[in-house]
Amino acid sequence: MNQGWGSYFKLSESRSIFEILDEWTRSRVRLCYWSQWKRTKTRVKELKKLG
After folding, report:
1. Backbone torsions φ then ψ of 8, nearest 5 degrees
2. Quick one: DSSP state of residue 11?
3. Contact (CB, 8 A) for 33 and 24
4. Smaller CB count within 10 Å for the chain: N or C?
């Protein structure tokens, strides 16, 4: 009986690996944006724009 790919990969650690990779990628993107916004005024303006 076919259980589907979700059941097949359920026991693997791929989800946790992708969560770690996603967390690292998001932090690097935040760092890039933060370093682009050199002045405090720009940082405040951009952060307000993002919500």
Report:
1. -65, -40
2. T
3. no
4. N
Q: Which residue has the tokens 């026991």?
A: 11
Alpha-carbon distances, residue 12 vs 5, 19, 20, 51 (angstroms):
11, 13, 15, 36
CA–CA separation, 47 and 30 (whole Å)? 11
- Closest to 11 (Cα-Cα) out of 21, 2, 3: 3
- Across the chain, the runs of DSSP E, i.e. the strands, are none
pLDDT at 39: 93
**What predicted TM-score, i.e. pTM, was given to this entire model?**
0.58
- How long, in residues, is the chain? 51
